[in-house]
Amino acid sequence: MTTRTATPTPPRTRPSPSPGARRARLRRWLPGLLLLSPSLIVLAVFVYGLIGWTVTLSLSDEHDALGNKGFVGLSNFVVLFTEDINGRFTHSLKNLLIFTVVFMVGALLMGVLWAFLLERGVRGEGFFRAVYLFPMAVSFVASGVVWRWLMNSGTGDQAGGLNRIFHDLHLGFLENPWWTDPDWGMAAMALPAIWQLSGYVMALFLSGFRGIPADLREAAAMDGASTYQLYRHVIFPQLTPTALSAMIILGHMSMKMFDLIMSVSGAQWITEVPAVYVWQTLLTSDYAKAAAISIILLLLVAVVIVPYLIYNNRVERRS
Amino acid sequence: MSASTITPAPEAPISKPLARRPRGGINRRSPLGRAATYVLLVIFLVIVLMPAYVLLVTSLKSGREIGVNGQWNLPTEWTFASWEKAWTALRPSFIRTFELAIPVALISSALGAANGFVLSRWRFPGADVVFTLILFGMFIPYQAVMIPLRQVVHEIGLPPGIPTLVFVHCVYGIPICTLIFRNYYATTVPVELIEASRVDGAGMLRTFASVILPLSAPGFVVTIIWQFTSAWNDYLFAIFMSNTRNGPITIALNALAGAQSPDYAASMAGALITSLPTLLVYIVLGRWFIGGLMAGSVKS
Questions:
Q1: Range of the domain at A296
Q2: How far is B171 from chain A (nearest CA, A)?
Q3: Into how many domains does chain A fold?
Q4: Other CB atoms within 10 A of residue A302 CB
């Protein structure tokens, strides 16, 4: 961000360029636009076009495989919030909220702690880093297999997985039904996600720590700052942008969480989130309703991502 | 698992922040603090590796040993029977997933390199806005396009299964690959180089081919690894657009492991088989794998 290198375009001297100059400039950048255009067209169609299509669907009454019958305005959305059977949609939002909070807090705490421990140089740092980060290379579908086993809901003599360890260590009070708990099950569902993403947060923060100029630390040391003061007043304030990106990345991943839930619990009421609800709804060919849920999901993500993208764009232009 | 970032933090290039810093330095810790650090690090190491231990141990047990008792113990009798069972179930999809992930990795990277070059070193008016619009595509929940997408790929005549999935992964991989290459070129290719090429009368394609591409190997390694891993690990597109007969390995694994009372030994062997290629990539090319994760923390 420091050395924003100039574009190859020459400084623009505005006062009405001659047609020749304009053509010359056009010749400069037009080939680039042409090279980019296949990707642009594809994305215009498959991202923005299809989102538009989904919006249209969500405003229609296409509730079965027979095709579009008419425009119904926002009623599909209203129905989701007010008349959905057993409040299914709001239930899925509640699940998503619990999952997101536990996942984000857990992964951030773990990741920052690991980065902090590794930051000041320990023997074998590369090894620890590699191990902490390895879950990122594994799919949620694969790790879901083992987490399903670990979070076995049996207790007492029937205890399996983690409960078995608690049982054998006489920590029976820790035994719990994990994700099968109707109220707080989603907190348990966040554990595999924390396991998988903490290493990522660590890597982000390690690179943040390492991006802080050494003279800043040295200056603080010269001024007689204690280690606590160094972190509190010098290092952590520098990491605000890192923390912001970490939160945004985790937050938007959390809202899209699908694979993990499908492989740990399968699609079922107790762990349903909007992303899974879409899938379940499509199985019944209720396209309008599935589209409405998808659009709400998109809006949830966009609220987080769009300001972030705009902010990034600005920061970059400023520098 | 399409995690990636466009971190605004002023970080140095990937390799540098993760390189070793000389020990000691300005904040040397007390021996006690040092010991506590290592104890904590090892505890976390054990926790992180615990699922891997369970996978390995359980997959090598015989069916009789999978009860609740001694779940965490090593097998009393080691057997590869479950590995054989899992391999038989997963083999066709294992091969299909290579047919998916390799073309995706190559095509996406080529597109990313071209786009990244234009957006960083052959810019046009409004390039930043266009770039932001491209980036949005990597954050969307794909459910928001999935319903019409299934119809569109069917109508343009893509055969179901792997060809369809290759197409969609290439399309939705454009943003991340563009991001990686744009930031890579912006930090490693000096503008003077482009200018010199221009002065020599080289056009855009010529400049790209003879000046830029020879410098692009690290960028390609990062995007190829990234796209290979994403396509290999994908489940969302796979479940919407394929089935156990024509789909990738995540679908097959889910079918193997997803039953009400699954064969845990075979499931875990299957999970390991499923993870082997991406784990190998991670172990052998770890540095570049992290490069993909950190994509964009390398800001121009």
A1: 86-318
A2: 7
A3: 1
A4: 19
DSSP string, A94-153: HHHHHHHHHHHHHHHHHHHHHHHHHHT--TTHHHHHHHHHGGGGS-HHHHHHHHHHHT--
Residue B219 within any structural domain of the chain? yes
Q: Do the Cβ atoms of B27 and A217 come within 8 Å? A: yes
- pTM metric for this prediction: 0.88
Tell me if B17 is assigned to some domain.
no
Taking a C-beta distance cutoff of 8 angstroms, is the pair B136, B178 a contact? no
CB contact under 8 A, A210 and B141: no
**What CATH number does the domain containing B257 carry?**
1.10.3720.10
Of B4, B23, B171, the CB nearest to A42: B171
What is the tens place of the pLDDT at every residue in A189-220?
Answer: 999 999 999 999 999 999 888 888 888 888 88
- Give the range of the structural domain holding residue B232, as residue numbers without chain letter: 82-293
User: Which residue from A minimizes the CA distance to B250?
Assistant: A141
- Whether residue B26 is contained in a domain is answered as no
| Closest CA–CA distance from residue B219 to any residue of chain A (Å) | 18
pLDDT at A17: 62
Chain B residue numbers touching A194 (CB-CB < 8 A): none
Q: What is the pLDDT of residues B61-110, one digit of tens each?
A: 877 777 666 788 888 888 898 999 999 999 999 999 999 999 999 999 99
CATH of the domain at A269: 1.10.3720.10
Nearest-by-Cβ selection for B290 from A1, A133, A150: A133
**Cα dihedral B101, B102, B105, B110 sign:** negative
Q: Residue B44: closest CA among chain A residues belongs to which residue?
A: A132
Of A9, A31, A43, the CB nearest to B174: A43
pLDDT-derived band at A319, boundaries 50, 70, 90: low
| Residue A293: inside a domain | yes
Q: What is the CA radius of gyration of chain B?
A: 23
Residues of B in contact with A140 (CB under 8 A): 1, 233, 235
